[in-house]
Amino acid sequence: MEYFRQIPLKCTNIGVTMPKGVLLVGPPGTGKTMLAKAVAGEANVPFFSISGSEFVEMFVGMGASKVRDLFKQAKKKAPCIVFIDEIDAIGQKRNTGGIGGNDEREQTLNQLLTEMDGFEGNSGVMILAATNRPESLDPALTRPGRFDRRVPVDLPDLKGRVAILKVHAKKIRIADDVDFERVARMASGASGAALANIFNEAALRAVRNGRGFATQADLEESIEVVIAGYQKKNAILSDKEKMAVAYHEIGHALVAALQTHSAPVQKITIIPRTSGALGYTMQAEEGDHYLMTKEEIENKIATYTGGRVAEEVALGSVSTGASNDIEQATKLARAMIARYGMSEEFDMVALETVSNQYLGGDASLVCSAETQTQVDRLVVELVKKQHDKARKLLMENRDKLQELALYLYEKETITGDEFMNILKA
Ligand code: ZN
């Protein structure tokens, strides 16, 4: 909520531009709609809400005209907030090249982009949109001046779950000796909506058993019922998996921190994320729009391998949890050689071009098959070297790895300061 309090909805007369579009990013059940409503309520402005799927379920051409209508109304009622739920239904990446595709969706999306470009930042219309798959959105939507701000709405951590449970506990009668912390621990990975459901289920169970209040056993039994239902949709981890994820995430953070040039870690968590990543190590500087030195890129590759290395070092076996890391590390290594001119062998020769930059297209190789084979070999060498470096770092700091992983497992989310305190102790 704090973020929104800073957005001055009434400051249009003193010439401050407010953001046009804000993307609320988070898994289902984390209260994105409620958050959007609360923002409107807080600012005391009208609230227009529509779901992305409503646009595409209509006849061809209707979606675009509905978008036009929506913005016409909104501009009349400004200042106001327009909330588009499930924006991915219309905002998915468009087909690159080729004719055809989903005409209806593209027309609707184009209309939305036109509308967003057509009004000034100070027109008083603010658009909030919710998605749980931000990576699937068309890059045109997330460009500056459109949905250029992101607010993560994540699953609650242990502390958050205890707080949510206590709120719901006021709505039904429960036994005095209910241990909220124990319930929260068992419901690791549950969303706010799932926690509410646990209480409903517990109340029903109490009634079935002819009791006027829910007990600890009711709650624990309900967790299993509710979680089993959610488990398919959201990643809810077993204890053993949680431990492995803790090691993995600490591995990334530790390798990053032990290399002088890596940015310090802000936050580490083992709460499952929207992106499908199980854990998440956030580093202060993100994205590649800054200049990076060769050494910084190498360190970054080492950091990507750090998760897997921690599994190797601490658990003696490796998991599929590193698939995204592998992809990222490979991408960086390849770019170093083929695009940034950072290899001895190929010097400053471009071996790759980025096609269709506007649509965030992929890079394609422009070199002979022989060269390609050589590049592939260099990529493997490069990643391997950083993997070895990371392994050496974690082997030397095994004790810290274990101590930090156990701490993270207990707390589920830790700050960079907590991390550094343990590391330096
Ligand atoms: Zn990882």
Can you walk through the features of this model?
It is a single chain. The protein has 425 residues and is α/β, with parallel strands linked by helices. It folds into three domains: 2-152, P-loop containing nucleotide triphosphate hydrolases (Rossmann fold), CATH 3.40.50; 158-228, Orthogonal Bundle (Helicase, Ruva Protein, domain 3); 239-424, Peptidase M41 (Methane Monooxygenase Hydroxylase, Chain G, domain 1, Up-down Bundle), CATH 1.20.58.760. Helix content is 51%, strand content 11%. It is built from 16 helices and ten strands. A five-stranded parallel β-sheet has the order 2-3-4-1-5. Strands 7-6-10 form a three-stranded antiparallel β-sheet. The chain is flat and about 70 Å long. The two termini are 35 Å apart. It binds zinc ion. Zinc ion (ZN) binds at residues 248, 252, 307, 322, 325. Zinc ion binds at residues 248, 252, 307, 322, 325.
CATH names the topology of the largest domain as Methane Monooxygenase Hydroxylase, Chain G, domain 1
Instruction: Please give the order of strands in the largest beta sheet.
Output: 2-3-4-1-5
Structural class: alpha/beta
Number of strands: 10
DSSP strand content:
5-15%
- Bound heterogens, unique: zinc ion
